[in-house]
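Hey Z.,

So I finally got round to the flavin mononucleotide thing we talked about over coffee. Here's the setup:
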Amino acid sequence: MPDLITSYMGLKLSNPIIVGSCDLTGSVSGILRCEEAGAGAVVLKSIFEEQFMLKEDILAKNVSLHPEAVDYLRKGGLLEYAPQKMCQMIIEAKKKTKIPIIASINCQSIKLWPSFAKQIQEAGADGLELNIYFLPLELKTPGSKYEESYVKILREIKNTVNIPIAVKLTAQITSVPYLAHKLTESGCDAIVLFNWFLEPDINIKNLKTRNILGKGNFNQSLRWVALLADRIDCDLASSGGLKNGKDLIKQVLAGASAAQACTLFYQKGLKVIKDVLAELVAWMKEHHYKAIEDFRGELSFKTQELSFKDMGEADVYFRAQYLKAYKKFNVI
Ligand SMILES: Cc1cc2nc3c(=O)[nH]c(=O)nc-3n(C[C@H](O)[C@H](O)[C@H](O)COP(=O)(O)O)c2cc1C
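And the result:
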């Protein structure tokens, strides 16, 4: 029987399937269900600083406080205690489960990232995923400024806690390798490629705007996993569009140590984890692989480039323009 154990952000996972941050991991019973279904780890539903901002506004409206006191609360006084519910959940879940629990946070104010991280570490989380996202709205702010913030936040957190830290990136980054390299230099233990978000839409009947769910892009994740794997000293997890065991095998071949998924579990239930793992096991047997590390990164850009087996294959990862592909497929 092949060994499915994998090492991800310094944690030992029984297999590479991670239930990504979503409502399925938002309660102790949810975490237990993920473990029972066979997940290698879970990432908890993110806590968002904004959630607590809202509560403060209610507080500000309902309690007669000096404006400076309200300002203090808004800037962090009360927010310091915001992760309590998640911390309680971690404490309880750690008593009942064995799988690694990775917490997830999204903060707006720079001061709160380390403060939240500290409380989460104290609660016993095995790791922490930083769900960092800025919508680059400002006309006069260059992209590099936003990207520097990722590194700044990571550094602040690494100076505060010693549990492993993963950074979950958006695909809308000018140079994924540069940022990944900078994060690695700053002690990042894993990078998750990629997060996806709500997307805007317009209802042309009632002229109203609305948000729709985004969609994970499996091949985009595959490209960047393959282009980064083993070129930076940092583990990679894919995230987006994983549908079955074949997709998991592809991500590991590209160089991922683990693969996160959510939509698949919403669509087919957590029981599908068994099928995904069965497909992985069958494929490993067929190819005589005994362990994940035996084939992880076998088709990464770096491995192919080094082996000079077939540069045409490595070139697939950075070939993005149409012309050659159309020629190859005899379309033109
Ligand atoms: C209902 C739902 C809620 C989500 N909530 C979060 C969240 O709180 N934090 C986060 O980082 N990602 C969140 N995500 C994104 C997932 O963690 C993950 O990156 C993505 O869903 C993976 O793509 P897949 O759904 O195609 O597998 C959410 C996804 C879904 C479907």
